[in-house]
Amino acid sequence: MRAVVVSEFGGPDAVRVVETPVPEPGPGQIRIKVGASALNPVDAGVRAGGFGGAGETVGLGWDVAGVVDAVSAGTGWAVGDRVVALSYGTVRPLGAHAEYVVVDASAVAGAPTSVDTVHAATVPLNALTAAQALDLLDLKPGQSLLVTGAAGAVGGYAVQLASRQGVTVTGLAGTADATLVRGFGAAHFVSRDAARADTSALPVEPGSVDAVLDAAFIGDAALAAVRDGGVHVGVIPGQAPAPVRGVRSTAVAVAADGARLAELVALVDEGALTPRVAGTYALDDAAKAHARLAEGGLRGKLVLIP
Predict the structure, then answer these.
(1) Cβ-Cβ contacts under 8 Å for 295 (sequence gap 6 or more)
(2) 228-to-135, 167, 200, 268 alpha-carbon distances in Å
(3) 263 and 279 Cβ atoms separated by less than 8 Å
(4) Does some domain include residue 228?
(5) Best CA proximity match to 70, nearest among 103, 95, 113
(6) Which pLDDT belongs to residue 259?
(7) What is the DSSP pairing of strand 209-214 with strand 144-148?
(8) pTM of the model as a whole
(9) What's 41's domain CATH number?
(10) Predicted confidence (pLDDT) per residue in 238-266, tens digit
């Protein structure tokens, strides 16, 4: 089969498509024939060597939507089932950017019925990250939350999930995204453009919200918006700003969770979560997709199709 890997770290030109044996599922695992797999910033980080693995061949891809192709006994899944899954891991020989991928059965959920395979492939990593970040925030209805990067994939899902929980959400994004972010359910919108002249501060009153979900990796400036004793949650493990004023500062480390993913899929089918696709690329054009990701400005995910 074909798979996307890097054997030397670098920019988009480090991405290679190679022939490799089809993986076999072990105990408690299933094999998925990949229909589509989203490209995420973490893939660029792995490609650049940000997670280690020097001297190894490292597979790329975390999101998968496709059809069960082989199963081990007792997994609860059957050949032919349409599924989505998080193929978790930063340094491994194969990822989900391949024709086939093996995952733990516990990481798998039935695919959404309301969207196609390409859109379904944008759900696992980003929706799970948003949901698990909100778990860490542990907000109650009526409390206030600032979501930075509210027009992005994680931020957009976070706005939708938090507003559904009765949290009063302020979305921070570019001015052009105001309608989009309000459509996700944000009660308030703040333009990040006003902050560009002074990157040390946000156009948000200091200490004005109970919590921040920092999907845009802003750090200390985002933490300043949190009231004393509030919560700041980032999305890059190990890179949360130092706590001050009694603010609890941490970061979500996304975990594969098929049961939780099934709940998020149900919300997609209800119309409560909105998968977004910015463009598609053939698997053989993975390097081109990485180059487009590096350009930025996407609203939605790039998706690779084997």
Answers:
(1) none
(2) 20, 18, 19, 35
(3) no
(4) yes
(5) 103
(6) 98
(7) parallel
(8) 0.95
(9) 3.90.180.10
(10) 888 999 999 999 999 999 999 999 999 99
| For the chain, the helix, strand and coil percentages under 3-state DSSP, each to the nearest 5 | 30, 30, 40
Q: Give yes or no: residues 78 and 119 share one domain.
A: yes
Asked if residue 263 is part of any domain, the answer here is: no
Alpha-helical runs (H) found in 186-270: 220-223, 258-270
277: nearest Cα among 45, 89, 160, 115:
115
For residue 109, is it within any domain?
yes
117 and 29 within one domain? yes
Helix axes 258-270, 153-164, angle to 10 degrees: 80
- Does residue 6 sit in the same domain as residue 112? yes
Backbone torsions φ then ψ of 193, nearest 5 degrees: -60, -30
Q: Are residues 57 and 159 in the same domain?
A: no
Residue-number span of the structural domain to which 170 is assigned: 126-251
Q: Where is average pLDDT lowest: 114-128, 183-197, 217-231?
A: 183-197
Name the phi and psi angles at 238, rounded to 5: 85, 0
